[in-house]
Write a structure and sequence with these properties.
Blueprint: H1 2-8, H2 19-25, E1 46-47, E2 67-71, E3 75-80, E4 86-95, E5 104-106, H3 110-113, E6 120-122, E7 125-126, H4 127-130, E8 132-136, E9 140-141, E10 147-156, E11 159-168, E12 173-182, E13 188-199, E14 212-217, E15 220-224, H5 227-232, E16 234-235, E17 242-246, E18 250-256, E19 262-268, E20 271-282, E21 287-298, H6 301-304, H7 321-338, H8 341-355, H9 357-372, H10 374-383, H11 388-401, H12 411-429, E22 439-441, E23 448-450, H13 461-476, H14 483-500, H15 505-527
Parallel strand pairs: 2-9
Antiparallel strand pairs: 1-21, 2-3, 3-4, 4-5, 6-7, 6-13, 8-10, 10-11, 11-12, 12-21, 13-20, 14-15, 14-17, 16-19, 17-18, 18-21, 19-20, 22-23
Helix pairs in contact: 7-8, 7-12, 8-15, 9-12, 9-15, 10-11, 13-14, 13-15
Length: 529
């Protein structure tokens, strides 16, 4: 079912443009991004007010290329004074590996540095390279409940870009208030873009966890992870609410908060880049204000809720998201009391099993009745092997006599499948399970075992015992009338064990627990039949 579901219902891909539309997108500018869609809709900027008057030039210091540090309980960021671009963004609570002394995850690397995360583009050109920049502010150290600001001022041939970046000790969100000040005698018009960039967010990518370019708008959430398509550049035909780069566990995003903008995305030289862009114009001696927000952090519900423009929509667990999300909340609820996500998975599995107990009981009873009439069914098939119509009539009479429904064992199980798949998706994509331990070491030894529920079992113990539990469960079920089908059913546990060898350990713990509970229920049903 799991394999067939993905084959029949593959993830929706972004709509491909026709040849005439995509041809311009392949013309790259200096930074490797595709040009904006032709004739984008005009945007309406909020008018400048007294609070948005430009700061005196004397407040700024020319610190070309100086690195400024922002240290908060959640992250440590390094911002370059030349344009306000990010050099590093370390997440303090998330390490690269589970090893002792492992460094924190850095959502900005040397590869993405060349794409200038949090950099501004003017007419698709890099302002951090072309403007003369100065800065107001110094290193920031923020505690809980504290905020701090850094102000960057760039002169781009008479167009002043004044960026006010606000950092918080309680959030991964960085707010930007941008003032475009036209000090020239000519109209300053062009496209303005807020950008983010990131390296691959998954060290060893698999079909279960990949780096995606993601955007969200009126048509919903869209993702693209094909690097060949992204190398050519992709873009939206309509404004979107936000865009970014994500994996199962982390998100780097930019969200315009004064207006909706168009999206562009690209993969180039080992780094992903996303730009939110719109056309704007500033009259001579006038000022326009725009705003945006940046997010560099984990895909946690509580953290994403603090971001604007429904950024929480990035927390999506697949086709059965509506079922998976409540299951993640339930998992978090159990964790509050037991402090171990492995135990929380077991408790959640037990609760789900209890909820579906009546349906499962009905299914097992039907299967047991089918098992009892198997000899009679076999005799009828041999007796009427040359008259299929008569054989079917006699089989239906047999079912009616013994009050057996052939589908009675399947239908109750089918009703549970959406929940099983929803929990599968939830456990696969929950950042809470990343580096969460269950049994860190083999008892009475120092051998690392289930120290990371988001990674496979390094000793392959859980997949093997899960396969054995499936085999035992299969033996308790009625055998198929056809010998070939019976052999195939016995081979299935071996086949699934092979598949589960590389599954995240959290998923294997869930399936093993569910199998054990199912075996117990089947045994109880057989004893009381």
């Amino acid at each position: 079912v799991l394999v067939g579901w993905n084959l029949l219902f593959p993830p929706q891909q972004p709509t491909q443009q026709d040849q005439n539309q995509t041809a311009p997108a392949q013309v790259q500018n200096e930074q490797g991004t595709a040009p904006s869609p032709e004739q984008p809709a005009p945007v309406t900027e909020k008018p400048a007010n007294a609070a948005e008057e430009p700061l005196p030039s004397s407040d700024f210091q020319a610190k070309a290329g100086q690195s400024l540090t922002v240290d908060t309980p959640r992250y440590k960021a390094v911002i370059n004074s030349k344009g306000g671009v990010a050099e590093h963004f370390w997440l303090k609570n998330y390490k690269k590996t589970i090893e002792q002394g492992a460094r924190p995850i850095d959502l900005v690397s040397a590869e993405s540095m060349g794409k200038a995360p949090m950099g501004l583009l003017w007419n698709a050109e890099p302002t951090w390279k072309q403007a003369n920049w100065s800065v107001k502010g110094d290193d920031l150290t923020l505690g809980r409940g504290q905020e701090g600001k850094l102000v960057f001022r760039g002169d781009l041939n008479g167009l002043i870009l004044e960026r006010v970046l606000t950092f918080s000790g309680d959030s991964y969100v960085i707010q930007e208030e941008l003032r475009l000040i036209n000090q020239s005698e000519n109209l300053a018009s062009g496209s303005l873009g807020f950008s983010v960039a990131s390296p691959k967010l998954v060290a060893n990518e698999s079909r279960y966890n990949r780096t995606n370019v993601i955007h969200y708008g009126a048509s919903g959430l869209k993702k693209e992870n094909d690097t060949d398509d992204l190398a050519l550049g992709i873009q939206s035909d309509a404004p979107v609410s936000w865009a970014g780069i994500d994996s199962n566990y982390f998100l780097v995003a930019v969200t315009p908060t004064s207006q909706k903008m168009y999206f562009k995305g690209k993969f180039d030289k080992g780094a992903y880049r996303v730009v939110m862009e719109s056309n704007t114009a500033v009259q001579p001696e006038q000022t326009q204000a725009m705003s945006a927000a940046y997010y560099f952090g984990p895909k946690e519900s509580s953290a994403l809720s603090l971001a604007p423009n429904d950024l929480k929509a990035a927390l999506h667990y697949g086709w059965l998201n509506i079922i998976a999300k409540p299951l993640v909340y339930a998992l978090q609820f159990f964790y509050q009391y037991v402090g171990n996500y492995g135990v929380a998975i077991i408790l959640l599995t037990i609760v789900i099993k209890l909820i579906f107990w009546p349906l499962s009981h009905k299914s097992y009873k039907s299967m047991e009745r089918m098992k009892k009439i198997q000899p009679m069914m076999k005799k009828l098939k041999e007796q009427y092997k040359d008259d299929r119509q008569k054989m079917n009539q006699e089989l239906m009479r047999l079912y009616k006599t013994y009050k057996v429904n052939p589908a009675g064992g399947c239908l109750p199980m089918l009703l549970q499948i959406p929940v099983f798949i929803g929990l599968y998706e939830a456990l696969l994509g929950a950042v809470e399970l990343r580096h969460a331990s269950f049994i860190p070491e083999v008892p009475f030894t120092d051998i690392v075992w289930l120290a990371d529920l988001s990674a496979k079992d390094p000793l392959y113990v859980t997949p093997v015992i899960m396969g054995l539990s499936m085999f035992l469960q299969q033996k308790l079920s009625p055998t198929a009338g056809d010998p070939t089908q019976a052999k195939i059913m016995l081979i299935m546990p071996i086949f699934l064990t092979f598949i589960f060898l590389n599954f995240p350990a959290g998923l294997v713990v869930y399936f093993f627990t569910n199998n054990v509970l199912s075996i117990a229920q089947q045994w109880w049903t057989l004893r009381n039949a």
